[in-house]
């Protein structure tokens, strides 16, 4: 099968997530990276492209969108891996030209941008994929399938958290700078950066979204303009409740994304730092340790697993699963076929939901943690 | 050293925590149980006393208080291990007569009772000890000492939870019945039963109490009159924040009491189910696993440890530490001496604090999780 | 029920395990310690006895045995908690006089002593209990019952180890001195001190003993006369195989006693440092986490459990189980009744087996790890 | 940089490790797979090649070696992923023609083949890389560097094991069939398949190899011709000792490769199933949890890490590290440069060592576990 021709916006020298996208795109051999506008600085863009052996390098994503759209061998899809405020612009340019967009989260920096992007995306015949990559973990797929099958009974509790510690002190770095700058990050600090992951993961696994939330936000590090810690209570339609904690100032936590879901008949517990294990407790029975691809693995988990149980798959494999799901969707789309059964990836509505989450938290926090509908 | 003569109210046949108190009292050889009013049912009280070989059995705690106070060899202290609504009555009777009271938590069922009890306790020359037993764990003492010494820097975050699953479905048992009955349990269900432990533990370790809380309470099991799940956000004076989760409907959790505290310089993490380990992360350094009595153990932890590291101590040892601390206090008190340095146990003010916590949560919940001062 | 009158030999000021025995005897209220010859030094013996409030203190165990045997209220049982070379002497004195002996392990320092003791014990009407205390853990009882019930199928593999680190460097202390002295410790260093525990635990759980072993012994610390590390391969009748590792020079191991047993149908895994968990894998199914007294707990484990699951019991509770089992046996014995069903404790034959283990390892090691029948 | 042109022998439809090699080769973008003799069955070879989009498919590896060597754009390296008895043949063909060989372990099925291969490899100017992939894990590099730097002091103990359970019962599958067939697997069953990994890992990390071993081998499953369990004791020059356990019949173990190394000054402990954590205990201090790329990570580990700590890397990333190290070596080699500093991969001598290990174990087992020099 021919690899999908992929472009990239952002991700040049010194950038973080661009390199991850490149590995993710490569891992299953579904994509060939051929073009890029890798940096806001044209010189750096060119140097980065040369280093990566890209066929075509552009100074600017507008130029890139225009020219690639015109080529017969132009890119079919583009990865957008720029800071939050630089998502909507490129996404719109490419979508308008029918080029599929694989964009990192959060959707945009502002709700206004999100709405503009949504309008274009809905009008475009191209696909929009949002890399909430944790939904690519096989055991997250397993958890989702188990809950959908009713293994937990009616859901009651969703305890989700994403704790980090790298912003415990004031840091000056490429990555920290824009994340703590409202103009580039948006309304949310930790909220947008990792809170949206927690929010999305809970929704993906449980199949439900809160109808109201109450948020208490803090900026612990002196001088920090955005939240570095978010405490949020959640209320779901039907009476389930939840708690969401997002923090970048919790020493000892690297990427502590943890999800626990409890229902009338059982519970599920999962931690991102050791993603190959999922705890399942049918109420009244011993806890069972489900392993990726091991005994008890469901087809939903197996189809996104590559190696036998006991051989750990990690962050990059989960990320690659999103890329490969996107490839399946793109191929079907280009062949005029329906999305193949079972293919799953976060998209526009997840992005909008994340934006609403951030906005609702900020609004709630301003109103002293009043309940706000996201 | 002569053992302290101890009496007991409650804890007869079929009761739960009375037996734990008896072991805790016995473990370090500091007490001899000699008298009891072990049940509300006189026949069962007598049968229970005979089984335990008690010297003196009473039909009723009032009778017991009156008679024991008159004997030369009467009890010096009494353990109160009855349901919540039956704490204040006996406690007052014994305190009035100068008999030390070791009472289980929560302090009482109602705030009115708590106030009455407080008045008597303050007037009494006898001691009042509240068995928030988790404060007896050596590594909890260690955590407290480390925080007091500034090892975490200024505190920012307190994440505490106590999750159980035994009330996931409607249960009919001696223990479940009164716990779900407002007349005997008080305003709180899970809140009073385990939430107070979480609340107390956080306060004991951090040395600080929230100035405001916002609570969302649920009763998931149909027909349940009291909360079986509590989600609470916490605000501390000085800006620290916290989350408290108490649940009795989380399948897969037996006694999941967990505390995580983060400050500007480091973090501490502890779990009750494996209490011989404490995680300490000085920010920017690898996590360290502190073990009870192991390398790095502070005197505060060592003085309440009995065996070398790697030989686990558990719930009963922690509980016994409260009893033995109480014994030290009682002996000093009876000798007219000051409390020996380092002796620590929860008392009246902790009990009042717990009652305020429950009341504030209930009030907040009624007001749609508004912030309430506890 | 009247407590059993207990005496103690050894365990005076500065001693280690004596205090543990006292707590273990006390925990379930089955014993009253009334007499002792607590030290080889009469002054220290007296001071220690006074501190503990013992009714009767003796200069010497012979004197104690003679006098106690003559008293109407003399001790019914004696705990022997002296160094290894000082087990046989007192044990024989008390057994001869019909006083039950609760002796710590290993049985004796030499095989000659063991044989002498065995002869007396077999002739005595009194009971002999050996405190291989790890057999008192509830989940060890569970494992034994599961294997006996065939849950693992035919056994194939026994992987057992006991790793410590406290003798990584040369240490001078009361406890280290005699343990590294062949005259007081016997043929084995780590072998006798902790290897016998591992050996005994494997036998207790699996119900089988090796017919041959091959041992490689080391003394890593310069100047050490006895082994501080033992590597042993095991062959069982019927073809099962095993490995036993005992070490006191493995930095990072406090009391790393671990047992894994595998059969044709499943596996069991357990670690002493967190003894409230037992992993059970029926072949081809997900691992199950059995907790002490939790879902799936068998009667054999429940009868030696005190508190609900999730409230950890530890080393002292396991040790106390041996004492309480012994009390049941002693009471039945004194009432002329058969041993109550289910009562289990290590005794003379386990002690002899341990001595054979040590001797066989030493002999094998001398013959360059040749196979030797223990 | 141009990708290295890679070929593959084996790894067609239904094969296991070939797909892993392809991902590993792709992950860092260093290779392009262009040719293959993917199966012993020419039709399946062709179908497999078509599926993978290979430019050139061959019926037979001899044909492939001959033709590729002649092309200007012929492959520069070949991956050999056939069963053990089919390593030497292709390896020799390609090495003879100056094509670099990346061969899976064990080196060959027989010692005779190994010697033939060694001769050719030594004479060839091409490189020979053996995919003992676990040496690619970043924290294994860290452990190796720490030991080399003396962080553990003089080494004393090496406890290594690789436990699986998939052969607990008789299985009929492509993978099981040849592994239990002496003609295709060689002298060892579990020994060759996973024992060699354990052996290699211990050597890689400690920098030393045993001078003698004593092995007890079993075939627990009726009718099995080769060992499915190996118990081995190890003696190192200078007095260190070790134990190696390899088993494919231990229910509950998926890929339980675990390494523990202890020295006079400290200990290191690592488990493959959660490879992003390494325990380090400096003797007398609390255990430290080193995480991949986290605080305390050494350059040796960082250079083979891709993502920040807390984002797990797994089996495929470790495998890819071997491929990428090989790419660095190949590029240097083709440029006539020395191997870049720090580049590490297993090679011929490791393969020979593994063969010696298997042979020595088998010989020792035949001589009733006598000591044999590997
Ligand atoms: N899915 C995840 O887990 C995850 C993890 C990290 C980051 N992210 C998201 O990825 C995005 C990038 O984050 P990062 O940490 O890699 O940031 P970064 O600062 O490391 O990299 C951003 C890159 O974008 C480039 N850039 C900025 N403006 C540009 C423009 N106009 N044209 C071309 N390039 C431009 C910069 O030069 C830089 O190379 C953010 O939206 C972030 O939220 C997601
Ligand atoms: N510290 C802890 O961890 C912990 C754990 C469990 C229970 N508790 C507390 O201990 C108390 C008892 O709980 P429990 O689970 O043992 O309850 P339980 O129902 O098992 O036992 C209560 C006992 O009190 C007796 N009783 C009731 N009224 C009496 C009266 N007037 N006079 C004498 N006896 C009377 C009952 O007969 C019964 O024996 C509660 O306040 C509970 O909150 C604390
Ligand atoms: N079951 C276990 O887990 C465990 C743990 C530790 C020790 N032990 C065993 O317990 C025994 C004691 O070990 P320890 O560590 O407590 O040793 P220790 O040196 O701390 O104490 C030994 C005590 O015996 C006393 N003693 C010696 N000779 C005596 C005599 N003739 N009469 C009276 N007292 C005498 C000493 O004065 C000292 O008080 C050993 O056999 C050891 O193997 C068992
Ligand atoms: N590094 C590791 O962790 C690891 C893991 C698994 C396997 N391995 C090793 O990889 C090798 C293959 O194992 P596997 O499990 O993938 O086996 P497999 O049976 O799944 O695959 C072997 C493949 O080789 C092909 N083959 C056989 N003879 C051939 C020939 N003459 N020409 C071309 N193709 C031929 C077969 O058709 C098949 O596709 C073995 O040596 C094994 O030890 C290593």
From TrEMBL, chains A, B, C, D:
Pfam family, one: GFO_IDH_MocA
Annotated ranges, domain Gfo/Idh/MocA-like oxidoreductase N-terminal: 4-130
InterPro entries, per database record: Gfo/Idh/MocA-like_OxRdtase_N, Gfo/Idh/MocA_oxidoreduct, GFO_IDH_MocA-like_dom, NAD(P)-bd_dom_sf
One example GO MF annotation: nucleotide binding
Source organism, top-level taxon: Bacteria
Domain GFO/IDH/MocA-like oxidoreductase: start-end pairs: 140-269
Protein name: Putative dehydrogenase
Species annotation: Gemmobacter caeni
């Amino acid at each position: 099968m021919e690899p999908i021709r992929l472009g990239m916006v952002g991700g040049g020298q010194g950038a973080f997530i661009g390199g991850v996208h490149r590995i993710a795109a490569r891992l299953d051999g579904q994509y060939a990276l051929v073009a890029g506008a890798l940096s806001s600085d044209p010189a750096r863009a060119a140097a980065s492209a040369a280093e990566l052996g890209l066929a075509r390098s552009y100074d600017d994503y507008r130029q890139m969108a225009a020219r690639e759209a015109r080529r017969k061998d132009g890119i079919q899809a583009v990865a957008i891996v720029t800071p939050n405020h630089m998502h909507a612009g490129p996404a719109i340019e490419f979508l308008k030209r029918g080029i599929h967009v694989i964009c990192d989260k959060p959707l945009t920096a502002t709700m206004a941008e999100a709405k503009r992007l949504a309008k274009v995306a809905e009008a475009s015949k191209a696909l929009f994929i949002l890399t909430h990559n944790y939904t690519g973990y096989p055991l997250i797929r397993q958890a989702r399938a188990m809950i959908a099958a009713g293994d937990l009974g009616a859901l009651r509790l969703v305890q989700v958290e994403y704790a980090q510690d790298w912003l415990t002190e004031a840091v000056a770095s490429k990555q920290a700078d824009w994340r703590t700058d409202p103009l580039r990050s948006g309304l949310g600090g930790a909220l947008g950066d990792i809170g949206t992951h927690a929010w999305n993961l809970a929704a993906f696994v449980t199949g439900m979204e809160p109808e109201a939330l109450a948020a208490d936000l803090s900026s612990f590090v002196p001088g920090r303009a955005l939240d570095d810690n978010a405490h949020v209570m959640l209320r779901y339609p039907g009476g389930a409740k939840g708690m969401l904690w997002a923090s970048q100032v919790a020493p000892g936590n690297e990427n502590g994304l943890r999800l626990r879901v409890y229902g009338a008949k059982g519970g599920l517990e999962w931690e991102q730092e050791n993603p190959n294990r999922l705890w399942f407790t049918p109420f009244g029975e011993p806890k069972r340790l489900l392993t990726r691809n091991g005994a008890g693995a469901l087809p939903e988990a197996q189809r996104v697993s590559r190696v036998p149980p006991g051989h750990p798959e990690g962050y990059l494999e989960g990320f690659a699963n999103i890329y490969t799901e996107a490839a399946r969707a793109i191929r079907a789309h280009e062949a005029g076929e329906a999305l193949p059964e079972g293919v799953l990836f976060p998209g526009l509505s997840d992005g909008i939901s994340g934006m609403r989450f951030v906005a609702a938290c900020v609004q709630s926090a301003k109103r002293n943690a009043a309940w706000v509908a996201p």
